[in-house]
């Protein structure tokens, strides 16, 4: 199995992912790991319908997808792994999702969040989760909107 990209992107499957990241990584499988989306059949159907037929789409809760990764079903795929939040990414890595680099794409602003770039807004929970992923889990974390951008270490965003 090859996770060719693990990314936090609040929008999950959308045009930038399909038009930029899928061709760049040559992904043939998109995995969306988010408990809330997994419980919304209409949203799952709409996201899956947006993806070309030659790309497999798997949408599930973090715990459900842990089984997909551990039972070897994705061994032959080039997986683009999407998380909606830093909570999902941290929990997934702790459960054994196989990624060693995490891309911060879009993390929208919200109550209690501070904007650190045009697409990255973080609160204390996010910073704590990313810090744990980096220091305790050994994950390299970068900020990169599209493949043509330079990947920057996430800590350079924080003053």
Automatic annotation (TrEMBL):
Pfam families: PTSIIB_sorb (PF03830)
Record flagged with keyword Metal-binding: no
Entry's Gene Ontology molecular function annotations: kinase activity; protein-N(PI)-phosphohistidine-sugar phosphotransferase activity
Chain ranges of the PTS EIIB type-4 domain: 1-159
Keywords: Cytoplasm, Kinase, Phosphotransferase system, Sugar transport, Transferase, Transport
Gene3D superfamilies: Phosphotransferase system, sorbose subfamily IIB component
InterPro entries, per the entry: PTS_IIB_sorbose-sp, PTS_IIB_sorbose-sp_sf
Any one GO biological process: phosphoenolpyruvate-dependent sugar phosphotransferase system
Recorded GO CC terms: cytoplasm
Keyword Membrane set for record: no
Superkingdom: Bacteria
Subcellular location: Cytoplasm
Protein name: PTS system mannose-specific IIB component
Organism: Geothermobacter ehrlichii
